[in-house]
Specification:
Elements: E1 8-13, H1 15-19, H2 28-42, E2 47-52, H3 60-65, H4 70-94, E3 99-103, E4 112-113, H5 116-124, E5 128-132, H6 142-152, E6 157-162, E7 167-168, E8 180-181, E9 183-184, H7 186-191, H8 199-207, E10 212-216, H9 222-227, E11 234-236
Parallel strand pairs: 1-2, 1-6, 2-5, 3-4, 3-5, 6-10, 9-11
Antiparallel strand pairs: 7-8, 10-11
Helix pairs in contact: 2-4, 6-8
Bound molecules: uridine-5'-diphosphate.
Length: about 250
C-alpha cells in the first residue's frame, strides 16, 4: 500500500456536495459515494478529520432575506451541519470506517462536544472525526472552521472538496475562457478576492502555514490521490513562516 504524503488532514466537504444534482437535501447515493472515497484515502493510514458544511439545508445569510435575524439564521445553519455530520457518520460506519461526530455546540444526546485532545486521540486510534456545528459562532463559515480546526489539531493540510476541479480566475460555469490555477498563494486568493473560500479561512491558513488543496470530490479516487501527494486541483501554498508545532 503506498504511503500517504500527509499524516493528518482536514477534509472540508461543502453541504452542496451532499445535495447532489439538486444541491438541496441529502442525496443518499452521493453520501455513499463520498463515504467510499473517504474510505479509500483512510486505508493509507492517514488521520482524517472532516468538517461538514450545511449549505444544502440552510445558510444564515439566505435567512436574512426572509426576515430571519442573521445570528439566528447562522445558528440554524450550524444545526444543518449536524444533520449532514450524522448522516455521514452513519454511512461511513456502514462502509466499515469508525467515525465520531464532535460538535462545537454541545448536544450530548447525539454527539460528543469538540474536545481537541479527544479528537486527536480518536484519529490516532483510526477513527474518522466529523466536526459539526461550525465554530459554534455566528458570522463564520465552515471554511473558517476547517482552517481553525486544522491549526488546532496540527493538520498538515486542508483539503477543500468541492464541485469544481480547482481554483479559476473566474467562474468556470459562467465563463468558457476561465483559467485554472495549478498553484497560488494565500495572499493571491485574498488579493484577487477569489470566491473559492472565504477571506477569514484563507488568512488563518496563511498565518499558520497551512496549505489548502481545492479539488473535485466527485471525481473517483481524488481524495486518495491528494492524500498520496499526486497533483490534483489547485494547491494554495505560501512561503513558510516558522510556527511552533506540537502533538
Ligand atoms: N455557520 C456559522 N458559523 C460557523 C459555521 C457555519 O454561523 O462557524 C452557519 C452559516 O450560517 C453558514 C451555515 O452555517 O452559512 C452553513 O455553513 P456553510 O455555509 O459554510 O456551508 P457550506 O457552504 O460549506 O455548505
Amino acid at each position: 500500500m503506498p504511503k500517504a504524503k500527509y499524516k493528518r488532514i482536514i477534509l472540508k466537504v461543502s453541504g452542496e456536495v451532499f445535495g447532489g444534482k439538486h444541491k438541496v437535501g441529502i442525496d443518499p447515493l452521493v453520501l455513499q459515494t463520498v463515504a467510499k472515497e473517504i474510505k479509500k484515502a483512510h486505508r493509507h493510514n492517514v488521520q482524517i478529520a472532516i468538517v461538514v458544511g450545511g449549505g444544502n439545508i440552510f445558510r444564515g445569510i439566505s435567512g436574512e432575506g426572509e426576515g430571519i435575524d442573521r445570528s439566528t439564521g447562522d445558528y440554524m445553519g450550524m444545526l444543518a451541519t449536524v444533520i449532514n455530520a450524522l448522516a455521514l457518520q452513519d454511512v461511513l460506519e456502514k462502509e466499515g470506517v469508525y467515525a465520531r461526530v464532535q460538535t462545537a455546540i454541545e448536544m450530548k444526546a447525539i454527539a460528543e462536544p469538540f474536545i481537541r485532545r479527544r479528537a486527536i486521540r480518536h484519529m490516532q486510534k483510526g477513527r474518522v472525526v466529523i466536526l459539526a456545528a461550525g465554530t459554534g459562532n455566528p458570522y463564520f463559515t465552515t471554511d473558517t472552521t476547517a482552517a481553525l480546526r486544522a491549526a488546532e489539531i496540527n493538520a498538515d493540510v486542508v483539503l477543500k472538496a468541492t464541485k469544481v476541479d480547482g481554483v479559476y480566475d473566474k467562474d468556470p460555469f459562467l465563463h468558457k475562457d476561465a483559467k485554472k490555477f495549478q498553484k497560488l498563494s494565500h495572499m493571491n486568493v485574498l488579493k484577487r478576492r477569489l470566491k473559492v473560500l472565504d477571506a477569514t479561512a484563507a488568512s488563518l491558513c496563511m498565518d499558520n502555514n497551512i496549505p489548502i488543496i481545492v479539488f473535485d470530490l466527485m471525481k473517483k479516487g481524488n481524495i486518495e490521490r491528494v492524500v498520496l501527494g499526486k497533483t490534483v486541483g489547485t494547491m494554495i501554498v505560501s512561503p513558510k513562516i516558522p510556527r511552533p508545532r506540537s502533538g
